[in-house]
Write a structure and sequence with these properties.
It is a single chain. By secondary structure, the protein is mostly helical. The chain has 2 domains: 32 residues; 97 residues, Rossmann fold (3-Layer(aba) Sandwich). 56% of the residues lie in helices and 6% in strands. The chain is built from 6 helices and 2 strands, in the order αααααβαβ. It has a two-stranded parallel sheet with strand order 1-2. It is globular and about 40 Å long. Belongs to the class-I aminoacyl-tRNA synthetase family. GO terms for molecular function: ATP binding; tryptophan-tRNA ligase activity. InterPro entries: aa-tRNA-synth_Ic, Rossmann-like_a/b/a_fold, Trp-tRNA-ligase, Trp-tRNA_synthetase.
């Protein structure tokens, strides 16, 4: 949600990929891809954003904290980032999502959005559940 220098962004992508591989992810068993190259993420985020009300997003604690750190000038990207996260989850019809405690409310938003979409348009998205770990 913050502008980055293109060279820094490219290096961050490479560093993140190297870290994932160093953790033992086997690229023969898992698909690794750069999300920004898949336009359906942004397209679904737009659709879901049109179904999500602003007061719901304004109540998320992450919005309040980050907005405070930006001198009360939070960006639209910061506000709608949880909708993009929901699109990331729902696009692949995920049923279980590993999250930390700090992301539980964002997953609850994804659940709410999935339920709202399904009620309006028929059963399409599974309602994702959290996998919480003590680690």
């Amino acid at each position: 949600t913050m502008p980055k220098e293109p060279a820094v962004l490219r290096q961050n992508i490479l560093d993140t990929t190297a870290a994932i591989l160093a953790c033992g992810i086997d690229p023969k068993k898992c698909v690794l891809f750069r999300q920004s190259l898949v336009p359906e993420h942004a397209e679904l985020a737009w659709i879901l954003g049109c179904l999500t009300n602003v007061p719901r997003l304004l109540r998320l604690p992450q919005w309040k904290m980050k907005r405070a750190s930006q001198n009360s000038e939070g960006t639209v990207g910061l506000l709608t980032y949880p909708v993009l996260q929901a699109a990331d989850i729902l696009l692949y019809k995920s049923t279980r999502v590993p999250v930390g405690e700090d992301q539980v409310l964002h997953l609850e938003l994804a659940q709410d959005i999935a339920q709202h979409f399904n009620k309006k348009y028929g059963e399409f998205f599974p309602v994702p559940r959290a996998i919480l770990s003590e680690l």
